[in-house]
Amino acid sequence: MKKILLSLAVIVFVSNFCFAQTGNNQISLGAEVNFFASNGYSSIYNPGIGGNLKGLYGIGDASQLTLTGAYSSFSGKSSSTFGDQTLSLLPILAGYRYNLKSGIYGEAQAGLAILTTKVTGASYSQTNFGGAINIGYVIHGFDVSARYYTEGDVLSTFAIRLAYNFSLTAKK
Fold this sequence. Notes:
- The chain is mainly beta and 172 residues long.
- It has a single domain (2-167), classed as Porin, CATH 2.40.160.
- It has helices at 2-18, 39-42; strands at 26-36, 48-58, 63-75, 86-99, 104-119, 122-139, 142-150, 156-167.
- It has an eight-stranded antiparallel beta barrel.
- A hairpin with a 2-residue loop joins β5 (104-119) and β6 (122-139).
- The longest helix is centred in the first third of the chain and has 17 residues, at 2-18.
- It starts with a helix and ends in a 5-residue tail after the last strand.
């Protein structure tokens, strides 16, 4: 997990110097709380806690291409027979973000996600296609957003994210 996030940060940082800077290039580091929107999962698992790293590459005054690596962990509810299980979600998503001058933005993302279920003595993983829609607000580098993420028939989550965006674009 740490290697993936470090690799994403290095790729975004290095690519910043490989192309002409025409937009706002940033790295965003955030924490999030995830809630299952899928009935089956919400009755078995508690809300998840996680973090993410997002690279934003400016392609104009208001647009950015994004690459996000995230990790969230959901513990089983003690009231269910799955109380000793842990579910981990690791999505890697590429996207497009459009920023309004008011600080509000919209973002669409698509990619792959690794879903892992662990119980004492056993583990099961699967890789699925996933997609997300984000709506957020940025003020003084702080980024607050809401995201709906889905893996089709497998699962869906709703997340609230708080992050800080570090600018990589040289000031003029």
